[in-house]
Amino acid sequence: MAEKISNNYFDGIPTHRNQLLALMCVVFAYFFDQLDNxxxxxxxxxxxxxxxxxxxxxxxxQSIYFIGMMAGGILGGLxxxxxxxxxxxxxxxxxxxxxxxxxxxxHSLVPFVIFRVLTGVCIMGTVVxxxxxxxxxxxxxxxxxxxxxxSGVGNFCVPxxxxxxxxxxxLSPEAWRWLFYQGLLGFxxxxxxxxxxxxxxxxxxxRGRQTEAEAAVKALCGVDVDLSAAMAAESGRTRETVxxxxxxxxxxxxxxxxxxxxxxxxxxxxxxxxxxxxxxxxFLQASGxxxxxxxxxxxxxxxxxxxxxxxxxxxxxxxGRRIPLAATMLLSGAIAVxxxxxxxDFYTLTALYFAFQFVSMCCCMILMPYLSxxxxxxxxxxxxxxxxxxxxxxxxxxxxxxxxxFAAGGFFGIGAFxxxxxxxxxxxxxxxxxxxxxxxxxxxx
Length: 445
Prior knowledge:
Oligomer: single chain
Structural class: mainly alpha
CATH superfamily: MFS general substrate transporter like domains
Largest sheet: 2 strands, parallel
Radius of gyration: 21 Å
Strand order of the largest sheet: 1-2
Number of strands: 2
CATH architecture: Up-down Bundle
């Protein structure tokens, strides 16, 4: 029997194929999460015509969905810190798949909104769990790379759903429903997780389960490690209930300040990104761009989303993650300035929308691990979930007022709104952020 080596989880150990299999579960979850996240942007005009409502009436459907995501961020974080990452992941995959499918069967706004809210809860709960799980089962040397690559591959669903929408939506007035029926494909990551996903050893240590944690590390990377040092460090913490953990997050001055700063940064990224994702197609058509051209602009731009996310894996850890986070957010705002002044030229709009999505999604995936890296294991998912919930709450408000801003100021008004949030978020990250990249999680917190 090989002697155990004393090690800080996976640090210094090459990535093993079993880790990649576990990460593949996350890839597929991201694929179907983002599929649902983006489908409404393509289907919204058809849904409005099907239900016989206008843009102002439909706005709450966009807005309330993000309130569901806000609740999911908090709930998913609390549950994952309580029962574990693996169980939360599997429950989230099951629920968002079912609710997405049921949303396609509705025939009026109220039941549609109800299922969208439930879908939003489950999707954000799953995403929060995914990000935390990825950074907890990878080494500090590669923690910045694999989350970006995995999320990027998963985000290839965005151009796929875009080009599917171009073909499917024009088939009939009710063809948009097929974009929601794909929700049942979310059972794929659920089944994969049952076979290949191991519980996070960091979470197991936080619950005092050293033997199981060491077994999980060995199963994932093939190395027999001794986590006595990690267990000793963790034993100094008082094990708390979910309510105590949540209250402690708000009472601790250090983490309360971090949470407030992260909220400003997250709102600066989320609001511009989701306004474009949710409303760009509708705004283009309302501005006189033909439906086919508007859908094609959004579809081509969506190709940039996975490319930007993958690129984040290579630049994210640079400058402690803080510098590229600020730079990409400020660059997103600069591109938006050119977009709102592009007129109606198809090629110019397409090129600028592509550039915005590339940079914005690169920024998004630098931000996601940054959130989880900023909190200790005991309430890592709770902390990240609270921040993401706050971000989605800000998105919910912005989705509600976006049509009003567009009605009052057109693309220029929307663009100015987006640029302002990019500037505030980027400058906050630059001046008040802290480095996390390429450091052990235990050192950061």
